[in-house]
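Quick illustration for those who missed Monday's session on complexes.
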Amino acid sequence: RLKTWENIFKQMLINEKEWQTIWLDDSEKFVKVIDQTKLPHEFAIKDIKSSDDAALAIKDMIIRGAPLIGVMGAYGLMLGLKEDPSDENLERTFIKLQSTRPTAVNLNWALKRIYNLVKVCPLEERFETAKKEAKLIENEDINMCEKIGDNGLEIIKKIALNNKSKKINILTHCNAGWLATVNWGTALAPIYKAHRIGINVHVWVDETRPRNQGASLTTFELKHENVPHTVITDNAGGHLMQHKKVDLVIVGSDRTTIKGDVCNKIGTYLKALAAKANNIPFYAALPISTLDWDIYDGVQNIPIEARCEEEVTHISGLNSKGYIEKVRLVHNECKAFNPAFDVTPNELVSGLITERGVCLANEKAIKKLYQK
Ligand code: MRU
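Prediction with MRU bound:
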């Protein structure tokens, strides 16, 4: 299947069929998404018919991943305008969607894009205008991610050239694959491109406690793309790096500051420290829409989402009867703290892989790339 011209250009596959994570229903009145809370055990499609459905889908992580949250936000505002196109409802829906997840900056970016357009429209045109723009954001996301894939591929190619005939081991954290975007993904896009042109890649997948997006989503994606992969505990990465079993680390980003600090799933920072200590390149792959132009120092200023204790105190999986079941891990009075993201300071980041090219993680390089 691989290496054929046709397959190189195909988007993401599940059982050889092309999919994307979100799409407008044929009626163009609501959207459909892949329900990510059920993967990898069940493949279910969910209808998102109202702005409340959209807010809940983001909050409960039926869809997740920074770029996809942005697209869902855009469609959520569209659904709000279908319900009531008034100024009051526009404000209300904007705030409702904006407050669902505070860290990923794309949500705000996409909401503002729709808001600014419809605000100056007559009421009867607001739904159609929002729909057109949301579709545009969806399609732009696919194109951006594909370009991130092309740009990141060059990094993998260089490593492959220096390691002739050797397998390239890439470590990734959380899920920054196509399930976190509309298609292709960010961190995984270069890996898919490399695999499809025949580079021998293997992916170390951090399980990514507490919600295990690595174990449940990244492995699901890689399996369906036939990319060799192995899941590891979150604490195993440093050990593998010390033993020269990692050639490259690629992660995604939920918010990147103008200085080049990268905010991503909790645990990313520790991987960056271990990569630096072991002289292993550590890249973040991100669309430019993930840049926050208002924040310089990410460690001090990026709001970190604190999620519920239950995500830490409990774990869910498939039981022996084939049902998804949640079980408690700790004694029933145990307190838990659950910060969902951390910030990797720019000095630990080898570079940023964007749709406009790869740049160093510093203000000068980011601004230069943006002006391009
Ligand atoms: O909490 P999640 O699952 O939305 O977090 C996802 C991540 O941290 C991803 O790495 C990030 O959004 C980059 S997405 C391409």
